[in-house]
């Protein structure tokens, strides 16, 4: 009896351990997650169906999220890319817009985004800026809604939209905004910025026209001097825009060399830094602005044969380094295809093209003779590959990332 009585406290302790511990209600957990950061919110939404439903209800009732550290890369926000392809048959030649969905299990799901002949100009946070029948239109692929902008205004004096080649005007899509407390507000209004760099013997100015969805109109024309930019002639237009650190960046080339142009949005100050003399002068070398760290300094990606290079700035002097580093080679991309069990498309040559950088996911869209690849700049590794023989000719490509407010409620589904 004495022996049995000594075991009773141990049994009671074990029984106590099996009792369910107290937990916070789901509504409280969602309220905490909505004030955390993107990665935490995603993890919460991934835990169970009930949590995803609560997050969806939270967004529906309150309209937007206020997330800390919203500038961190979140790879799942990459949802694919838009392809403007030419389709031929016996009687017709059609230009259609397709969406390649990277969320598909086999990475090869492609469906028609629109039957209207349209040209993708920019994309950001789940919105896409298209030119449709001469009009600018901002579309939300998730909600299947769109807004047609008023006619584009003309740049004063020497420049007008009708007289400048479309390739020389940069269209920038800006979504959301920063709050005074440093949080990122998801689900705000958008802006469309038209940017043109006017370079002549006596002028080196960046000209801007901005549309605000909140006011529904184009704002005032802005003409800003580009400090440190040299040259009397612009060779080509502005490259794709990189928005990072509260600034817009563009690549440009004048008759004196290649530059990275920087516009500080809040102060409307424009400055330029010249790339080194050894930077490829042949503009057929494809180039793209990106950043390997969310919110970090820009780098310039260039291609040469079967390699992609990265040109970086010195942290101490802000000058561009004289020699680039190799980011990835074709052989690594081909090994990814072989490891994935795919069959290589037929190829008659070698070559790479950097097309687009996703500042929410930290990925680069690459085109090659073997299809499209997605490169994760953090790991310097390929994470996706896509090829479809049914599109014989492609003339436009642009990546597509989702907004957190749209993506979290549809965590386990495609769109």
UniProtKB/TrEMBL annotation:
<dbReference type="InterPro" id="IPR056016">
    <property type="entry name" value="DUF7595"/>
</dbReference>
<protein>
    <recommendedName>
        <fullName>DUF7595 domain-containing protein</fullName>
    </recommendedName>
</protein>
<feature type="domain" description="DUF7595">
    <location>
        <begin position="120"/>
        <end position="367"/>
    </location>
</feature>
<dbReference type="Pfam" id="PF24523">
    <property type="entry name" value="DUF7595"/>
</dbReference>
<dbReference type="InterPro" id="IPR036047">
    <property type="entry name" value="F-box-like_dom_sf"/>
</dbReference>
